[in-house]
């Protein structure tokens, strides 16, 4: 496995593969890798001849009061996991390499509609930072396929829409969320949780599962969402949102069948997100 900290080195390493017609897969990450990330590498491996993973804690997608400085940086461990996980090349740029003019003067990619509301509502500018850096990574690596986790459902929708709108010749692969036995979705931010909070954190998926059962049986949506919020609060969460949307994140209408519950909630200072797809009784 080769590690490249410069854009030119990475491009030179990819050139012979591209010329040989090999399929290139990209897994963009912010490091602190867990089994969820390794599932992305595995999915890329299954579809591609060459797998590139980027590790970059992207300052552009963090708000002023968010956890950029404390975000876990575990490069040595990450490289060991990627080597064992079958990754071929790793790209490890710095903020100065990615944003040489500084972030205030950076050209931005803004994806309308799907970036608004949900996490976009509570983290203003977050998805502009995500779509901008992902577009840069796409331009640098020029992958055939790029893999993203379904846990970040809105992020996946934003990237799919960006790829469509900008006519990028890249297949976007959504990879199912990897969970602990308790149901807690794996996330780099789980490391911030105390043992007690970790036990409570599984109630986020548990609450969504209870709502799914009720909604699939035909219960009233607004009543269920209200009860879901109450149940999260009782468990010790401070909910940010709990919503039901159509799979493309548009609002649910009387004819929507396939839908998705999306939630974000804080446990202490840790913000967790999760989602669960369902079929509405109609
Ligand atoms: O999901 C993440 O880890 C990040 O948002 C991503 C896609 C690597 C962009 O920085």
From TrEMBL:
Gene Ontology process terms (BP): pantothenate biosynthetic process
Principal EC category: ligase
Residues that hold ATP according to the record: 30-37, 149-152, 178, 186-189
Ligase found in the keyword field: yes
Keyword tags: ATP-binding, Cytoplasm, Ligase, Nucleotide-binding, Pantothenate biosynthesis
Pathway: Cofactor biosynthesis; (R)-pantothenate biosynthesis; (R)-pantothenate from (R)-pantoate and beta-alanine: step 1/1
GO molecular function, one term: ATP binding
Entry-linked Pfam families: Pantoate_ligase
Catalytic activity: (R)-pantoate + beta-alanine + ATP = (R)-pantothenate + AMP + diphosphate + H(+)
Subcellular location: Cytoplasm
List of residues binding beta-alanine: 61
SUPFAM superfamilies in the cross-refs: Nucleotidylyl transferase
Residues binding (R)-pantoate: 61, 155
Any single Gene Ontology cellular-component annotation: cytosol
Catalytic residues (UniProt): 37
Classification via InterPro entries: Pantoate_ligase (IPR003721), Pantoate_ligase_C (IPR042176), Rossmann-like_a/b/a_fold (IPR014729)
Other known facts: The reaction proceeds by a bi uni uni bi ping pong mechanism.
Homology family: Belongs to the pantothenate synthetase family.
Listed name of the protein: Pantothenate synthetase
Annotated organism of origin: Halomonas huangheensis
């Amino acid at each position: 496995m080769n590690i490249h900290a410069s854009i030119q080195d990475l491009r030179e390493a990819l050139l012979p593969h591209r010329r040989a017609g090999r399929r290139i897969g990209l897994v963009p990450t912010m490091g602190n890798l867990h089994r969820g990330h390794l599932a992305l590498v595995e999915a890329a491996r299954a579809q591609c001849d060459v797998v590139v993973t980027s590790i970059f804690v992207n300052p552009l997608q963090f708000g002023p009061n968010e956890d950029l400085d404390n975000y876990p940086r575990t490069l040595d461990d990450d490289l060991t996991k990627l080597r064992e996980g079958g990754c071929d090349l790793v790209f490890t740029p710095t903020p100065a390499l990615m944003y040489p003019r500084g972030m205030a003067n950076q050209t931005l990619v803004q994806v309308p509609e799907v970036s608004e509301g949900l996490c976009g509502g509570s983290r203003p500018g977050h998805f502009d930072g995500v779509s901008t850096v992902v577009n840069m990574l796409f331009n640098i690596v020029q992958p055939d396929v790029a893999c993203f986790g379904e846990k970040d459902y809105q992020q996946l929708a934003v990237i799919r829409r960006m790829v469509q709108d900008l006519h990028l010749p890249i297949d976007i692969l959504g990879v199912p969320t990897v969970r602990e036995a308790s149901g807690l979705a794996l996330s780099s931010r789980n490391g911030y949780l105390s043992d007690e909070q970790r036990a409570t954190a599984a109630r986020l998926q548990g609450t969504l599962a209870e709502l799914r059962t009720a909604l699939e049986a035909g219960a009233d949506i607004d009543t269920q969402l209200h009860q879901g919020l109450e149940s999260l609060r009782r468990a010790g969460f401070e909910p940010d949102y709990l919503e039901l949307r159509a799979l493309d994140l548009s609002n649910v209408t009387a004819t929507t069948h396939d839908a998705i519950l999306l939630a974000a909630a804080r446990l202490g200072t840790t913000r967790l997100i999760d989602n669960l797809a369902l079929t509405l009784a109609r």
